[in-house]
Design goal:
heterodimer, A: 383 residues, Aspartate Aminotransferase, domain 2, three-stranded antiparallel β-sheet, 12 helices, 12 strands, 14% strand, B: 138 residues, alpha+beta, 5 helices, elongated, binds FE2/S2 (inorganic) cluster
């Protein structure tokens, strides 16, 4: 059986669920009002907004947090980092993050360094875990924020955010975590895990693109980075994207435990099959791994060549190989986990979705085996 | 990102493999991304007494463009005299492939580097064997 096309790049983005589309459509045609308006069109929109806010807030047991809607994960992370930095610069100028964060966190940090802030980039171990002792040692009297992601977008490592939250609260430092990949796929409890700020987004969970959010504990001092009409409690000006937010909430509603279990099962099947291929390795941990992430390296195989071959077989995956990046350098995550050079260039990420099936995993394994074999045959490196 | 000709050479690369008793072997490494190519050539004289590349094979570890340019370089060099083969430029290779994305132009240096190295290797070996032959007659 050869399926038509198999999408295994759900960490990049996902297909929007038909129920989400349906929920959104209504808010383009009928409930199109501006939630700031006084008339009934406005209040209808306002109601939809607060209902969506409730649905999403419930998912992370938010009590003392407000939820500010943004245009996505990148904006949320920018707001968290820059907003906290500028509102608290009298208290201190030190920020701690990890070396495997998403580019929008790392590049925000680099920009903040240019503005006079001081950033510590914590190293990670060979599976991508931040060292808790190292974090504790890095906290100084002038530290204002710790920003460490929940699940790594490339290698799927789930950082121990509960422990990190506790350390931060013990030291009276605000803790932000980027949960773009893990939201609804792994448990998040803002209170239990001592999370002060949480970045979430919609398009990784079958919601629309262009919508995200930032949970902010009420007593956190934060400045807006977008100035205007004062929407989003003054933290995010701009007319509220009601259809997008309604769709986001619907996507959250739809995502349940059985879907997570389904993805976990397929992921484990895929990992087991790939590790049978000669010269393959799993990047990231075996346990404490994001339910839909599988990331491999094949010794002496170049990732772009492999991805293109897979694509011609109908399988969509992604690679962080040097050849495929604009800079021609291996990605910062693989460098941070200390992967040997003969493995860094041959990396492939296969991120599953709830629409994937067992048959598709079987087919993908066949295609991988064949493609690796062909590329090895024309390679100067034997095995 | 890649055109049809590039994809065709990537999917069905010409002249792959090695020549066990090659007259010249060249190796090149892309300093930017670490990719590696080996070229093997057999050299014969044609009727006019010119040295030509009678057979050529390659092995490449690299991206789509690296594999496609390797394939095309061997196609262009095959049956050419050594002097003419040395004149092939990366623009020739790119043109024969119908164009390469600008960021991938550097990949064709890999193939040409290996080709030049193989021809040099051949000349070196010739010198040595001549030297040996002379030494033998003394
Ligand atoms: S050989 Fe690495 S980018 Fe082409």
């Amino acid at each position: 059986m050869k399926p038509d096309r198999i999408y295994m790049d759900n960490a990049a983005t996902t297909r929007v669920d038909p129920d989400v589309v349906k929920a959104m459509t209504l808010h383009f045609s009928e409930g199109f009002g501006n939630s700031s308006s006084l008339h009934s069109f406005g209040s209808d929109a306002g109601r939809a907004l607060s209902k969506s806010r409730e649905t999403i807030s419930r998912r992370v047991k938010a009590r003392d947090h407000r939820l500010v809607f943004t245009s996505g994960g990148t904006e949320s992370n920018n707001l968290a980092l820059k907003g906290i930095a500028f509102a608290n610069r009298k208290r201190g100028k030190h920020i701690i993050t990890s070396s495997i964060e998403h580019d929008c966190v790392l590049n925000s940090c680099k920009w903040l360094e240019k503005q006079g802030f001081d950033v510590t980039y914590l190293p990670v171990d060979s599976e991508g875990f931040v060292d808790l002792g190292g974090l504790e040692n890095a906290i100084r009297r002038d530290t204002i924020l710790v920003s460490i992601m929940h699940a790594n977008n490339e290698i799927g490592t789930m950082e121990p955010i509960g422990e990190i939250g506790r350390i931060c609260s013990d030291h009276d430092v605000w803790f932000h975590t980027d949960a773009c990949q893990s939201f609804t796929k792994a448990e998040i409890n803002l209170e239990k895990q001592n999370i002060d700020l949480l970045t979430i987004n919609s398009h990784k969970i079958c919601g629309p693109k262009g919508v995200g959010g930032l949970f902010i504990r009420r007593d956190v001092a934060i400045d807006p980075i977008m100035h205007g009409g004062g929407q989003g409690s003054g933290l995010r000006s701009g007319t509220v994207n009601i259809p997008g937010i309604v769709g986001f909430a619907k996507a959250v509603e739809i995502m349940n435990d059985s879907r997570v279990e389904h993805m976990t099962r397929l992921r484990d099947m895929l990992i087991k099959g790939v590790l049978d291929i000669d010269g393959s390795r799993l990047n990231g941990p075996m346990r404490k791994r994001l339910c839909n992430n599988a990331h491999f390296s094949f010794r002496h195989i170049e990732g772009e060549s492999l991805i293109v071959r897979l694509d011609l077989k109908g399988i969509a995956a992604s690679t962080g190989s040097a050849c495929s990046s604009g800079s021609l350098e291996p990605g910062h995550v693989l460098t941070a986990i200390g992967l040997e050079p003969e493995y860094t260039n041959g990396s492939v990420r296969m991120s599953l979705g709830r629409e994937n099936t067992k048959d598709e995993i079987g087919y993908a394994l066949e295609a991988l085996n064949e493609s690796v074999d062909i590329l090895r045959r024309i390679s100067p490196f034997k095995n | 990102m890649y055109n049809e000709t590039v994809m065709e050479h990537f999917m069905r690369p010409r002249n792959t493999g090695e020549i066990t008793d090659a007259d010249g072997i060249g190796k090149a490494r892309n300093p930017v991304c670490g990719d590696v190519m080996h070229i093997f050539i057999s050299v014969n004289k044609n009727n006019a007494g010119e040295e030509i590349i009678s057979d050529i094979r390659f092995q490449t570890f690299g991206c789509v463009a690296a594999i496609a340019t390797s394939s095309m370089t061997t196609e262009l060099a095959k049956k050419k005299s050594l002097d003419d083969a040395l004149k092939i430029t990366r623009d020739d290779v790119a043109r024969a492939l119908g164009g390469l994305p600008p960021i991938k132009m550097h990949c064709s240096n890999l193939a040409l580097g290996a080709l030049h190295a193989a021809i040099n290797d051949y000349h070196e070996k010739q010198k040595q064997s001549k030297g040996n032959a002379q030494a033998g007659t003394l």
